[in-house]
Design brief:
about 200 residues, two-stranded antiparallel sheet, about 0% strand, mainly alpha
Length: about 200
């Protein structure tokens, strides 16, 4: 399975490939616009969309792992408390050592409660650290995606300053809209057929 780091690396590689595709694309004469393969861009976008759910799945696995550790800690603490209570009851049952049994029982219960609290605290701390690391990773991925989209939008908008006819402006606007991943697949098909 792809790890959290692999999912982030995949997304960064895809953005690098997209940057390379645009940077090395052939320029249109007398324009800041470039010609890129629609299929290549669509392939990169599809790969990016596949990489993001992988990162999300990894995040869900980390949360599930943290929950499992917390549950295990709670079960262990409950088992320790149960054992301590049983031990205390067994000691108290002896007629000649009632006082010692009570003292020993109190000590066992106190020790068990302290250990149970440490286990609970450890499980909570592990969960918090895991979620904090996950939050940082997701923030980094979101920032990288946002920076990539802003760079693409800036490159695409640079071409609108030329004196292109209205039809060319509409096509560029549609391309900019598509670069923002905000179009639905049906609208993309209609635009692709109109652009042929």
């Amino acid at each position: 399975m792809t790890t959290r780091a692999d999912a982030g690396d995949d997304l960064l590689r895809i953005l690098d490939e997209l940057d390379e595709l645009i940077s090395t694309a052939r320029s249109l004469p007398m324009s800041a616009s470039v010609m890129v393969s629609r299929q290549d861009v669509l392939d990169l976008i599809n790969r990016a969309r596949q990489a993001v759910p992988t990162a999300v799945r990894r995040a869900e696995e980390i949360v599930a792992d943290a929950d499992a550790v917390l549950t295990q800690g709670r079960e262990e603490s409950q088992r320790i408390l149960t054992h301590a209570q049983e031990e205390a009851e067994r000691l108290v049952a002896g007629e000649n050592i009632v006082r010692m049994a009570n003292d020993r029982a109190d000590a066992i219960i106190s020790t068990a409660e302290q250990r149970a609290e440490r286990l609970r605290h450890g499980a909570d701390d592990y969960s918090d650290r895991s979620l904090a690391a996950l939050e940082t990773e997701i923030d980094k991925l979101a920032e990288q995606v946002r920076a990539g989209r802003e760079a693409l939008a800036a490159r695409l908008s640079a071409g609108t300053d030329s004196a292109a006819p209205d039809a060319e402006r509409e096509r560029q606007e549609a391309a900019r809209h598509f670069a923002g991943w905000s179009v639905d697949p049906a609208a993309t098909r209609n635009w692709n057929q109109g652009g042929r």
